[in-house]
Protein backbone atom coordinates (compact mmCIF):
# COMPACT_ATOMS: atom_id res chain seq x y z
CA UNK A 1 0.00 0.00 0.00
CA UNK A 2 1.18 3.54 -0.76
CA UNK A 3 2.65 5.26 2.25
CA UNK A 4 0.28 7.96 3.53
CA UNK A 5 2.83 10.71 3.07
CA UNK A 6 3.12 9.84 -0.61
CA UNK A 7 -0.58 10.37 -1.19
CA UNK A 8 -1.33 13.55 -3.15
CA UNK A 9 -3.75 14.71 -0.44
CA UNK A 10 -1.06 14.36 2.24
CA UNK A 11 1.34 16.50 0.21
CA UNK A 12 -1.39 19.03 -0.48
CA UNK A 13 -2.17 19.18 3.23
CA UNK A 14 1.48 19.82 4.06
CA UNK A 15 1.48 22.73 1.65
CA UNK A 16 -1.86 24.00 2.86
CA UNK A 17 -0.60 23.90 6.45
CA UNK A 18 1.99 26.51 5.53
CA UNK A 19 -0.77 28.74 4.19
CA UNK A 20 -2.95 28.39 7.23
CA UNK A 21 -0.32 28.28 10.00
CA UNK A 22 -0.50 32.02 10.60
CA UNK A 23 -4.24 32.41 10.32
CA UNK A 24 -5.94 32.98 13.64
CA UNK A 25 -9.27 31.32 14.41
CA UNK A 26 -10.47 34.66 15.76
CA UNK A 27 -10.30 35.99 12.23
CA UNK A 28 -11.93 32.90 10.78
CA UNK A 29 -14.89 33.43 13.13
CA UNK A 30 -14.95 37.15 12.46
CA UNK A 31 -15.13 36.72 8.70
CA UNK A 32 -17.69 33.91 8.67
CA UNK A 33 -20.82 34.33 10.81
CA UNK A 34 -21.90 30.82 9.79
CA UNK A 35 -18.74 29.07 10.90
CA UNK A 36 -20.53 27.22 13.73
CA UNK A 37 -23.28 25.91 11.41
CA UNK A 38 -20.69 25.03 8.81
CA UNK A 39 -18.49 23.07 11.19
CA UNK A 40 -20.85 21.36 13.59
CA UNK A 41 -22.95 18.20 13.39
CA UNK A 42 -25.76 16.59 15.36
CA UNK A 43 -26.09 12.97 16.22
CA UNK A 44 -29.53 12.64 17.79
CA UNK A 45 -29.42 15.35 20.43
CA UNK A 46 -25.64 15.19 20.73
CA UNK A 47 -23.84 18.20 19.30
CA UNK A 48 -20.36 17.83 17.86
CA UNK A 49 -18.92 21.31 17.46
CA UNK A 50 -15.63 21.27 15.58
CA UNK A 51 -15.70 24.89 14.48
CA UNK A 52 -12.90 25.86 16.91
CA UNK A 53 -10.32 24.06 14.81
CA UNK A 54 -7.62 25.54 12.61
CA UNK A 55 -9.46 24.60 9.47
CA UNK A 56 -11.16 26.17 6.49
CA UNK A 57 -13.35 24.53 3.85
CA UNK A 58 -10.14 23.83 1.93
CA UNK A 59 -8.57 22.06 4.91
CA UNK A 60 -11.63 19.95 5.39
CA UNK A 61 -11.83 19.02 1.73
CA UNK A 62 -8.18 18.01 1.71
CA UNK A 63 -8.60 15.94 4.87
CA UNK A 64 -11.65 14.23 3.39
CA UNK A 65 -9.66 13.61 0.24
CA UNK A 66 -6.92 12.05 2.36
CA UNK A 67 -9.51 9.70 3.85
CA UNK A 68 -10.65 8.73 0.35
CA UNK A 69 -7.16 8.26 -1.03
CA UNK A 70 -6.27 6.11 2.00
CA UNK A 71 -9.06 3.69 1.12
CA UNK A 72 -10.84 4.36 4.40
CA UNK A 73 -14.22 3.28 3.03
CA UNK A 74 -12.82 -0.16 2.15
CA UNK A 75 -11.21 -0.46 5.56
CA UNK A 76 -14.50 0.29 7.30
CA UNK A 77 -16.32 -2.23 5.12
CA UNK A 78 -13.63 -4.83 5.85
CA UNK A 79 -14.06 -4.46 9.60
CA UNK A 80 -17.85 -4.77 9.48
CA UNK A 81 -17.53 -7.73 7.08
CA UNK A 82 -15.40 -9.65 9.57
CA UNK A 83 -12.20 -9.64 7.49
CA UNK A 84 -9.09 -10.53 9.48
CA UNK A 85 -7.88 -6.96 9.68
CA UNK A 86 -5.77 -7.69 12.77
CA UNK A 87 -3.07 -9.06 10.48
CA UNK A 88 -0.35 -9.91 12.99
CA UNK A 89 -2.73 -12.01 15.07
CA UNK A 90 -4.73 -13.15 12.07
CA UNK A 91 -8.03 -12.16 13.69
CA UNK A 92 -11.22 -10.39 12.74
CA UNK A 93 -12.11 -7.27 14.74
CA UNK A 94 -15.78 -7.50 15.52
CA UNK A 95 -16.70 -5.54 18.62
CA UNK A 96 -19.41 -4.07 16.38
CA UNK A 97 -21.05 -7.52 16.33
CA UNK A 98 -21.37 -7.47 20.12
CA UNK A 99 -23.72 -4.48 19.87
CA UNK A 100 -25.31 -5.35 16.56
CA UNK A 101 -28.83 -4.78 17.85
CA UNK A 102 -30.18 -5.08 14.32
CA UNK A 103 -29.01 -8.69 14.47
CA UNK A 104 -27.81 -8.52 10.88
CA UNK A 105 -25.63 -11.59 10.22
CA UNK A 106 -21.94 -10.82 10.71
CA UNK A 107 -19.48 -13.47 9.65
CA UNK A 108 -16.21 -14.54 11.23
CA UNK A 109 -14.53 -17.39 9.37
CA UNK A 110 -17.66 -17.72 7.27
CA UNK A 111 -19.90 -18.31 10.29
CA UNK A 112 -22.54 -15.89 11.57
CA UNK A 113 -21.41 -14.85 15.06
CA UNK A 114 -24.78 -13.43 16.08
CA UNK A 115 -26.33 -16.63 17.52
CA UNK A 116 -23.34 -16.98 19.87
CA UNK A 117 -23.41 -13.29 20.78
CA UNK A 118 -27.10 -13.56 21.62
CA UNK A 119 -26.61 -16.78 23.58
CA UNK A 120 -24.09 -15.10 25.89
CA UNK A 121 -26.31 -12.02 26.23
CA UNK A 122 -29.13 -14.36 27.36
CA UNK A 123 -26.80 -16.05 29.83
CA UNK A 124 -25.76 -12.64 31.17
CA UNK A 125 -29.40 -11.61 31.51
CA UNK A 126 -30.38 -14.72 33.47
CA UNK A 127 -27.40 -14.48 35.75
CA UNK A 128 -27.53 -10.75 36.45
CA UNK A 129 -31.27 -10.84 37.06
CA UNK A 130 -30.83 -13.70 39.53
CA UNK A 131 -28.06 -11.87 41.40
CA UNK A 132 -29.85 -8.53 41.43
CA UNK A 133 -33.14 -10.05 42.55
CA UNK A 134 -31.40 -11.96 45.34
CA UNK A 135 -32.26 -15.35 43.82
CA UNK A 136 -28.60 -16.19 43.35
CA UNK A 137 -27.48 -16.85 46.90
CA UNK A 138 -24.09 -17.23 48.47
CA UNK A 139 -22.99 -20.47 50.13
CA UNK A 140 -24.77 -19.66 53.39
CA UNK A 141 -27.99 -18.59 51.71
CA UNK A 142 -27.39 -14.83 51.83
CA UNK A 143 -27.91 -12.64 48.76
CA UNK A 144 -24.90 -11.10 47.01
CA UNK A 145 -24.04 -7.60 48.22
CA UNK A 146 -20.66 -6.98 46.59
CA UNK A 147 -19.13 -7.84 43.23
CA UNK A 148 -15.37 -7.76 42.82
CA UNK A 149 -14.14 -7.78 39.24
CA UNK A 150 -10.60 -9.08 38.96
CA UNK A 151 -9.04 -8.21 35.60
CA UNK A 152 -6.54 -5.80 34.10
CA UNK A 153 -6.16 -3.61 31.01
CA UNK A 154 -9.05 -4.27 28.65
CA UNK A 155 -10.62 -6.59 31.22
CA UNK A 156 -10.80 -3.79 33.77
CA UNK A 157 -10.73 -0.25 32.39
CA UNK A 158 -13.90 -0.42 30.28
CA UNK A 159 -16.25 -1.88 32.88
CA UNK A 160 -14.69 0.28 35.59
CA UNK A 161 -15.19 3.43 33.53
CA UNK A 162 -18.77 2.46 32.59
CA UNK A 163 -19.84 1.49 36.11
CA UNK A 164 -18.58 4.84 37.37
CA UNK A 165 -20.25 6.68 34.47
CA UNK A 166 -23.57 4.98 35.16
CA UNK A 167 -23.53 5.35 38.94
CA UNK A 168 -26.95 7.06 38.99
CA UNK A 169 -28.41 3.89 37.49
CA UNK A 170 -26.75 1.48 39.91
CA UNK A 171 -28.42 -0.39 42.72
CA UNK A 172 -26.84 0.85 45.99
CA UNK A 173 -27.43 -2.52 47.65
CA UNK A 174 -24.93 -4.11 45.25
CA UNK A 175 -21.45 -2.61 45.43
CA UNK A 176 -19.25 -3.22 42.39
CA UNK A 177 -15.49 -2.95 42.76
CA UNK A 178 -12.48 -3.44 40.53
CA UNK A 179 -9.15 -4.97 41.38
CA UNK A 180 -6.45 -4.87 38.72
CA UNK A 181 -2.99 -4.08 40.05
CA UNK A 182 -0.69 -6.92 41.11
CA UNK A 183 0.26 -4.60 43.97
CA UNK A 184 -1.32 -6.43 46.93
CA UNK A 185 -2.61 -3.11 48.25
CA UNK A 186 -5.26 -3.08 45.54
CA UNK A 187 -6.78 -6.43 46.47
CA UNK A 188 -6.38 -6.03 50.21
CA UNK A 189 -7.94 -2.58 50.33
CA UNK A 190 -10.89 -3.73 48.28
CA UNK A 191 -11.54 -6.86 50.34
CA UNK A 192 -11.01 -5.24 53.73
CA UNK A 193 -14.65 -4.51 54.50
CA UNK A 194 -16.29 -7.31 52.50
CA UNK A 195 -18.10 -10.36 53.80
CA UNK A 196 -17.07 -13.44 51.79
CA UNK A 197 -20.55 -14.94 52.25
CA UNK A 198 -22.09 -12.06 50.28
CA UNK A 199 -19.27 -11.42 47.80
CA UNK A 200 -19.15 -12.51 44.18
CA UNK A 201 -15.85 -12.52 42.30
CA UNK A 202 -15.81 -12.11 38.52
CA UNK A 203 -12.46 -13.25 37.20
CA UNK A 204 -12.20 -11.47 33.88
CA UNK A 205 -9.44 -12.52 31.55
CA UNK A 206 -9.61 -13.24 27.86
CA UNK A 207 -6.60 -15.56 28.04
CA UNK A 208 -7.04 -16.60 31.69
CA UNK A 209 -3.29 -16.55 31.94
CA UNK A 210 -2.49 -12.88 32.62
CA UNK A 211 -0.10 -12.85 35.55
CA UNK A 212 -1.66 -10.00 37.53
CA UNK A 213 -5.19 -11.31 37.18
CA UNK A 214 -4.33 -14.91 38.00
CA UNK A 215 -2.29 -13.95 41.06
CA UNK A 216 -5.10 -11.68 42.29
CA UNK A 217 -7.71 -14.37 41.59
CA UNK A 218 -5.68 -16.99 43.48
CA UNK A 219 -5.24 -14.65 46.44
CA UNK A 220 -8.96 -13.82 46.36
CA UNK A 221 -9.76 -17.53 46.38
CA UNK A 222 -7.37 -18.07 49.31
CA UNK A 223 -8.99 -15.12 51.18
CA UNK A 224 -12.40 -16.63 50.55
CA UNK A 225 -11.45 -20.19 51.55
CA UNK A 226 -9.62 -19.02 54.67
CA UNK A 227 -12.93 -17.62 55.86
CA UNK A 228 -15.53 -19.94 54.37
CA UNK A 229 -13.49 -23.15 54.66
CA UNK A 230 -15.47 -25.04 52.03
CA UNK A 231 -14.16 -25.41 48.51
CA UNK A 232 -17.63 -26.49 47.33
CA UNK A 233 -18.70 -22.90 48.06
CA UNK A 234 -16.49 -21.55 45.24
CA UNK A 235 -19.23 -22.31 42.74
CA UNK A 236 -21.51 -19.72 44.32
CA UNK A 237 -18.85 -17.02 44.63
CA UNK A 238 -16.58 -17.20 41.60
CA UNK A 239 -17.55 -16.75 37.97
CA UNK A 240 -15.25 -16.37 34.99
CA UNK A 241 -15.34 -14.23 31.89
CA UNK A 242 -12.97 -15.69 29.35
CA UNK A 243 -12.28 -17.28 26.01
CA UNK A 244 -10.30 -20.08 27.67
CA UNK A 245 -12.64 -22.77 29.07
CA UNK A 246 -9.80 -25.17 29.86
CA UNK A 247 -7.94 -22.75 32.12
CA UNK A 248 -11.19 -21.62 33.77
CA UNK A 249 -11.94 -25.23 34.75
CA UNK A 250 -8.35 -25.71 35.97
CA UNK A 251 -8.78 -22.72 38.27
CA UNK A 252 -11.80 -24.45 39.82
CA UNK A 253 -14.61 -22.39 38.36
CA UNK A 254 -17.64 -24.34 37.19
CA UNK A 255 -17.77 -24.08 33.36
CA UNK A 256 -21.51 -23.37 33.78
CA UNK A 257 -20.42 -20.13 35.45
CA UNK A 258 -18.19 -19.06 32.61
CA UNK A 259 -19.27 -16.24 30.32
CA UNK A 260 -17.65 -16.67 27.00
CA UNK A 261 -16.30 -14.27 24.43
CA UNK A 262 -14.19 -14.79 21.37
CA UNK A 263 -10.80 -14.13 19.85
CA UNK A 264 -12.31 -11.51 17.53
CA UNK A 265 -12.97 -9.29 20.54
CA UNK A 266 -9.88 -7.20 21.37
CA UNK A 267 -9.30 -6.57 25.08
CA UNK A 268 -9.63 -2.79 24.87
CA UNK A 269 -12.79 -3.16 22.77
CA UNK A 270 -14.38 -5.78 25.01
CA UNK A 271 -16.68 -3.93 27.39
CA UNK A 272 -19.57 -4.78 25.05
CA UNK A 273 -18.95 -8.51 25.53
CA UNK A 274 -19.27 -10.62 28.68
CA UNK A 275 -16.43 -8.44 30.01
CA UNK A 276 -19.32 -6.01 30.59
CA UNK A 277 -20.85 -8.40 33.16
CA UNK A 278 -20.01 -6.10 36.10
CA UNK A 279 -21.74 -3.26 34.24
CA UNK A 280 -24.83 -5.40 33.77
CA UNK A 281 -24.70 -6.46 37.42
CA UNK A 282 -24.44 -2.82 38.47
CA UNK A 283 -27.15 -1.31 36.26
CA UNK A 284 -29.22 -4.28 35.09
CA UNK A 285 -29.33 -6.00 31.75
CA UNK A 286 -31.88 -3.65 30.15
CA UNK A 287 -29.54 -0.74 30.69
CA UNK A 288 -26.55 -2.74 29.52
CA UNK A 289 -28.49 -3.38 26.33
CA UNK A 290 -29.26 0.35 26.08
CA UNK A 291 -25.49 0.92 26.22
CA UNK A 292 -25.12 -1.54 23.32
CA UNK A 293 -27.90 0.25 21.45
CA UNK A 294 -26.18 3.62 21.81
CA UNK A 295 -22.99 2.15 20.37
CA UNK A 296 -24.89 0.40 17.59
CA UNK A 297 -26.42 3.68 16.48
CA UNK A 298 -22.93 5.13 16.15
CA UNK A 299 -21.81 2.01 14.25
CA UNK A 300 -24.60 2.61 11.76
CA UNK A 301 -23.65 6.28 11.50
CA UNK A 302 -19.98 5.38 10.97
CA UNK A 303 -20.81 2.68 8.42
CA UNK A 304 -23.25 4.69 6.33
CA UNK A 305 -22.81 8.46 6.68
CA UNK A 306 -20.77 10.21 4.01
CA UNK A 307 -17.40 11.21 5.37
CA UNK A 308 -18.21 14.93 5.50
CA UNK A 309 -21.04 14.23 7.95
CA UNK A 310 -19.39 11.31 9.70
CA UNK A 311 -18.39 12.35 13.24
CA UNK A 312 -15.75 9.67 13.96
CA UNK A 313 -14.21 10.26 10.53
CA UNK A 314 -13.96 13.98 11.23
CA UNK A 315 -12.60 13.38 14.74
CA UNK A 316 -9.94 11.10 13.29
CA UNK A 317 -9.00 13.49 10.51
CA UNK A 318 -8.71 16.46 12.85
CA UNK A 319 -6.39 14.46 15.09
CA UNK A 320 -4.21 13.65 12.10
CA UNK A 321 -4.22 17.30 11.06
CA UNK A 322 -2.65 18.35 14.36
CA UNK A 323 -0.45 15.31 14.98
CA UNK A 324 1.07 15.07 11.52
CA UNK A 325 0.92 18.64 10.25
CA UNK A 326 1.25 20.78 13.41
CA UNK A 327 3.57 18.43 15.38
CA UNK A 328 1.09 18.13 18.26
CA UNK A 329 2.18 15.17 20.36
CA UNK A 330 -0.61 15.01 22.88
CA UNK A 331 -4.39 15.09 22.97
CA UNK A 332 -6.47 16.09 25.98
CA UNK A 333 -9.80 14.48 26.86
CA UNK A 334 -11.65 16.83 29.18
CA UNK A 335 -15.02 15.62 30.41
CA UNK A 336 -17.00 18.26 32.29
CA UNK A 337 -18.89 15.40 33.82
CA UNK A 338 -17.68 13.86 37.06
CA UNK A 339 -19.25 10.54 36.13
CA UNK A 340 -16.80 10.37 33.21
CA UNK A 341 -13.90 10.53 35.62
CA UNK A 342 -12.30 7.42 34.16
CA UNK A 343 -12.95 8.22 30.51
CA UNK A 344 -9.50 9.78 29.94
CA UNK A 345 -7.78 6.70 31.40
CA UNK A 346 -9.99 4.39 29.40
CA UNK A 347 -9.28 6.25 26.18
CA UNK A 348 -5.62 6.41 27.06
CA UNK A 349 -5.52 2.65 26.64
CA UNK A 350 -7.96 2.62 23.74
CA UNK A 351 -5.95 5.11 21.75
CA UNK A 352 -2.36 4.59 22.87
CA UNK A 353 -2.42 0.79 22.77
CA UNK A 354 -4.18 0.84 19.41
CA UNK A 355 -2.19 3.48 17.60
CA UNK A 356 1.09 3.66 19.51
CA UNK A 357 2.85 1.88 16.63
CA UNK A 358 5.91 2.68 14.56
CA UNK A 359 5.78 0.10 11.81
CA UNK A 360 3.05 -0.04 9.21
CA UNK A 361 1.02 -3.06 8.21
CA UNK A 362 3.70 -4.12 5.76
CA UNK A 363 6.31 -4.00 8.53
CA UNK A 364 7.97 -0.81 7.25
CA UNK A 365 9.05 1.84 9.76
CA UNK A 366 6.66 4.76 9.53
CA UNK A 367 8.01 8.17 8.51
CA UNK A 368 5.13 10.16 9.97
CA UNK A 369 3.61 10.59 13.40
CA UNK A 370 1.09 8.02 14.66
CA UNK A 371 -0.98 7.92 17.85
CA UNK A 372 -0.96 10.84 20.30
CA UNK A 373 -0.29 10.79 24.03
CA UNK A 374 -3.74 10.91 25.62
CA UNK A 375 -4.32 12.54 28.96
CA UNK A 376 -7.06 14.37 30.78
CA UNK A 377 -9.08 14.94 33.91
CA UNK A 378 -12.62 15.96 34.61
CA UNK A 379 -13.31 19.68 34.41
CA UNK A 380 -13.02 21.85 36.44
CA UNK A 381 -10.22 20.04 38.28
CA UNK A 382 -7.92 20.11 35.28
CA UNK A 383 -8.34 23.88 35.00
CA UNK A 384 -6.59 24.30 38.34
CA UNK A 385 -3.88 21.85 37.41
CA UNK A 386 -2.56 21.62 33.85
CA UNK A 387 -4.62 24.08 31.79
CA UNK A 388 -1.91 26.70 32.28
CA UNK A 389 0.16 24.82 29.72
CA UNK A 390 -2.84 24.40 27.41
CA UNK A 391 -3.36 28.18 27.36
CA UNK A 392 0.15 29.57 27.48
CA UNK A 393 2.63 26.73 27.09
CA UNK A 394 4.84 26.27 24.05
CA UNK A 395 3.04 23.12 22.98
CA UNK A 396 -0.07 22.78 20.90
CA UNK A 397 -2.51 20.48 22.70
CA UNK A 398 -5.75 19.78 20.85
CA UNK A 399 -8.60 19.12 23.28
CA UNK A 400 -12.00 17.46 23.39
CA UNK A 401 -14.44 19.03 25.83
CA UNK A 402 -17.43 16.90 26.81
CA UNK A 403 -20.48 17.78 28.89
CA UNK A 404 -24.08 16.88 29.63
CA UNK A 405 -26.78 19.56 29.37
CA UNK A 406 -28.63 17.90 32.23
CA UNK A 407 -26.99 16.76 35.43
CA UNK A 408 -28.16 13.77 37.43
CA UNK A 409 -28.26 16.03 40.48
CA UNK A 410 -29.80 19.35 41.31
CA UNK A 411 -27.74 21.40 43.67
CA UNK A 412 -27.98 25.17 43.55
CA UNK A 413 -26.20 26.61 40.50
CA UNK A 414 -23.44 23.97 40.35
CA UNK A 415 -24.36 22.71 36.93
CA UNK A 416 -24.56 26.15 35.34
CA UNK A 417 -21.17 26.97 36.82
CA UNK A 418 -19.76 23.76 35.40
CA UNK A 419 -21.26 24.41 31.98
CA UNK A 420 -20.07 27.99 31.88
CA UNK A 421 -16.54 26.67 32.34
CA UNK A 422 -17.12 23.98 29.71
CA UNK A 423 -18.08 26.71 27.26
CA UNK A 424 -15.56 29.33 28.37
CA UNK A 425 -12.43 27.19 28.18
CA UNK A 426 -12.68 26.40 24.45
CA UNK A 427 -13.53 30.05 23.84
CA UNK A 428 -10.44 31.18 25.76
CA UNK A 429 -8.25 28.65 23.97
CA UNK A 430 -9.53 29.83 20.62
CA UNK A 431 -9.62 33.61 21.21
CA UNK A 432 -6.66 34.07 23.49
CA UNK A 433 -5.85 37.59 24.62
CA UNK A 434 -3.54 39.88 22.69
CA UNK A 435 -0.75 41.89 24.28
CA UNK A 436 -2.70 45.05 23.53
CA UNK A 437 -5.83 43.71 25.22
CA UNK A 438 -3.84 42.65 28.26
CA UNK A 439 -2.11 46.03 28.41
CA UNK A 440 -5.36 47.98 28.16
CA UNK A 441 -6.89 45.90 30.92
CA UNK A 442 -3.93 46.52 33.18
CA UNK A 443 -3.93 50.23 32.46
CA UNK A 444 -7.56 50.49 33.53
CA UNK A 445 -6.49 48.78 36.75
CA UNK A 446 -3.88 51.49 37.24
CA UNK A 447 -0.75 49.48 36.40
CA UNK A 448 1.93 51.63 34.76
CA UNK A 449 5.63 51.84 33.96
CA UNK A 450 7.92 48.97 33.09
CA UNK A 451 5.91 46.55 35.18
CA UNK A 452 2.98 47.17 32.86
CA UNK A 453 4.82 45.72 29.88
CA UNK A 454 6.18 42.68 31.74
CA UNK A 455 2.80 41.95 33.23
CA UNK A 456 1.00 42.44 29.93
CA UNK A 457 3.39 39.97 28.30
CA UNK A 458 2.73 37.41 31.05
CA UNK A 459 -1.01 37.94 30.68
CA UNK A 460 -1.02 37.51 26.91
CA UNK A 461 -2.69 34.37 25.57
CA UNK A 462 -1.75 33.38 22.04
CA UNK A 463 -5.10 31.64 21.45
CA UNK A 464 -5.63 29.78 18.18
CA UNK A 465 -5.60 26.57 20.21
CA UNK A 466 -7.99 24.00 18.79
CA UNK A 467 -10.72 22.02 20.45
CA UNK A 468 -13.86 20.03 19.79
CA UNK A 469 -16.90 20.28 22.02
CA UNK A 470 -19.30 17.40 22.52
CA UNK A 471 -22.51 18.36 24.28
CA UNK A 472 -25.16 15.71 24.98
CA UNK A 473 -28.47 15.86 26.80
CA UNK A 474 -27.70 13.59 29.77
CA UNK A 475 -25.26 10.80 30.51
CA UNK A 476 -27.59 7.83 30.03
CA UNK A 477 -26.47 4.27 29.22
CA UNK A 478 -27.34 4.93 25.58
CA UNK A 479 -25.36 8.17 25.42
CA UNK A 480 -22.37 6.53 27.07
CA UNK A 481 -22.48 3.73 24.49
CA UNK A 482 -22.52 6.31 21.70
CA UNK A 483 -19.66 8.33 23.16
CA UNK A 484 -17.39 5.31 23.54
CA UNK A 485 -18.18 4.08 20.03
CA UNK A 486 -17.40 7.52 18.58
CA UNK A 487 -13.92 7.33 20.08
CA UNK A 488 -13.41 3.70 19.06
CA UNK A 489 -14.13 4.57 15.46
CA UNK A 490 -12.04 7.74 15.63
CA UNK A 491 -9.12 5.50 16.62
CA UNK A 492 -9.98 3.16 13.76
CA UNK A 493 -9.99 5.99 11.22
CA UNK A 494 -6.56 7.15 12.30
CA UNK A 495 -5.08 3.65 12.27
CA UNK A 496 -6.49 3.09 8.78
CA UNK A 497 -5.00 6.31 7.41
CA UNK A 498 -1.65 5.67 9.10
CA UNK A 499 -1.78 2.13 7.66
CA UNK A 500 -0.96 0.55 11.01
CA UNK A 501 -2.51 -2.39 12.83
CA UNK A 502 -4.59 -0.80 15.58
CA UNK A 503 -5.55 -4.16 17.02
CA UNK A 504 -2.43 -5.79 18.38
CA UNK A 505 -0.26 -4.67 21.31
CA UNK A 506 3.14 -6.27 20.88
CA UNK A 507 4.71 -3.39 22.79
CA UNK A 508 3.48 -4.74 26.11
CA UNK A 509 5.33 -8.06 25.73
CA UNK A 510 9.00 -7.29 26.26
CA UNK A 511 8.68 -5.83 29.75
CA UNK A 512 6.45 -8.73 30.80
CA UNK A 513 9.08 -11.25 29.69
CA UNK A 514 11.93 -9.47 31.42
CA UNK A 515 9.87 -9.25 34.63
CA UNK A 516 9.57 -13.05 34.63
CA UNK A 517 13.35 -13.44 34.59
CA UNK A 518 13.83 -10.81 37.27
CA UNK A 519 11.11 -12.40 39.42
CA UNK A 520 13.15 -15.61 39.65
CA UNK A 521 16.34 -13.65 40.32
CA UNK A 522 14.78 -11.96 43.33
CA UNK A 523 14.84 -15.36 45.08
CA UNK A 524 18.52 -15.84 44.38
CA UNK A 525 20.75 -14.98 47.34
CA UNK A 526 23.67 -14.09 45.05
CA UNK A 527 23.91 -10.56 43.68
CA UNK A 528 22.53 -10.11 40.16
CA UNK A 529 25.19 -9.60 37.49
CA UNK A 530 23.62 -10.72 34.22
CA UNK A 531 22.00 -7.41 33.24
CA UNK A 532 23.27 -3.92 32.50
CA UNK A 533 24.74 -2.19 35.54
CA UNK A 534 21.61 -0.15 36.26
CA UNK A 535 19.29 -3.18 36.23
CA UNK A 536 21.75 -5.18 38.37
CA UNK A 537 22.05 -2.21 40.71
CA UNK A 538 18.28 -1.92 41.18
CA UNK A 539 17.88 -5.64 41.87
CA UNK A 540 20.72 -5.65 44.35
CA UNK A 541 19.62 -2.49 46.13
CA UNK A 542 16.11 -3.93 46.44
CA UNK A 543 17.53 -7.10 47.98
CA UNK A 544 19.53 -5.08 50.48
CA UNK A 545 16.46 -3.08 51.55
CA UNK A 546 13.68 -5.65 51.70
C1 LIG B 1 -6.14 -4.85 25.35
C2 LIG B 1 -5.01 -5.67 25.72
C3 LIG B 1 -4.78 -5.82 27.20
C4 LIG B 1 -5.57 -6.96 27.83
C5 LIG B 1 -4.98 -7.26 29.19
C6 LIG B 1 -5.71 -8.35 29.91
O1 LIG B 1 -6.52 -4.67 24.25
O2 LIG B 1 -5.12 -6.86 25.05
O3 LIG B 1 -5.03 -4.65 27.93
O4 LIG B 1 -6.92 -6.66 27.90
O5 LIG B 1 -3.64 -7.60 29.06
O6 LIG B 1 -5.69 -9.52 29.18
P1 LIG B 1 -6.58 -10.73 29.57
O7 LIG B 1 -8.00 -10.34 29.42
O8 LIG B 1 -6.20 -11.86 28.65
O9 LIG B 1 -6.28 -11.05 31.01
Overview of the molecule:
With 546 residues, this protein is α/β, with parallel strands linked by helices. 48% of the residues lie in helices and 11% in strands. The chain is built from 23 helices and 13 strands. Helix 14 packs parallel to helix 21. The protein is globular, with a radius of gyration of 26 Å. The termini are far apart.
Please sum up the structure shown.
It is built from 23 helices and 13 strands. By secondary structure, it is of the alpha/beta class. The longest helix has 22 residues, at 477-498.
Describe the secondary structure blueprint for this structure.
Blueprint lengths: L7 H13 L4 H7 L3 H4 L1 E4 L2 E4 L7 H13 L2 H10 L13 H4 L8 E2 L2 E2 L1 H19 L13 E5 L6 H9 L9 E5 L4 H8 L7 E6 L6 H18 L5 H4 E5 L2 H7 L6 E3 L16 H7 L1 H20 L6 H15 L4 E7 L6 H13 L17 E3 L11 H6 L6 E6 L9 H18 L3 H10 L4 H10 L8 E6 L4 H22 L10 H13 L11 H13 L1
Parallel strand pairs: 5-6, 5-7, 7-8, 8-9, 10-11, 10-12, 12-13
Antiparallel strand pairs: 1-2, 2-13, 3-4
The structure holds glucose-6-phosphate.
The site of glucose-6-phosphate (G6Q) has 14 residues, from loops.
Number of strands: 13
Helix fraction?
40-55%
Low-confidence stretches: none
Quote the distance from N terminus to C terminus: 54 Å
Number of helices: 23
- The value of Rg in angstroms is 26 Å
The secondary-structure class comes to: alpha/beta
Mean pLDDT: 97
Query: Per DSSP, what share of the residues sits in E-state strands of 2 or more residues?
Result: 5-15%
Provide the list of bound ligands, each named once. Answer: glucose-6-phosphate
Q: Mind describing the biggest β-sheet?
A: 6 strands, mixed
Amino acid sequence: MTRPIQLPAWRALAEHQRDIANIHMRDLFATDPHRFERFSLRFGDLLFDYSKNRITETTLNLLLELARQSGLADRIAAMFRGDKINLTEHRAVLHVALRNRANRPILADGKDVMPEVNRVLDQMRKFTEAVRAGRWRGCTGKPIEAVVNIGIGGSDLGPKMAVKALTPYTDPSLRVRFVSNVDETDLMQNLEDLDPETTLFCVASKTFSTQETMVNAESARAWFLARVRDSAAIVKHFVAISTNAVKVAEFGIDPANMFEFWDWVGGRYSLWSAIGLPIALAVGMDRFEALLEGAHQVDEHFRTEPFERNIPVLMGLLGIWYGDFFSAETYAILPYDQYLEYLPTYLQQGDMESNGKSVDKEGRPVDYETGPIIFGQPGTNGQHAFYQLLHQGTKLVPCDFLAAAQSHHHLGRHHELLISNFIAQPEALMRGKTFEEAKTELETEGVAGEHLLTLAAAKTFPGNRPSNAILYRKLTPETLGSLIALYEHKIFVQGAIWNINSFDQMGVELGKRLAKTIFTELDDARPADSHDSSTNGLINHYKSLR
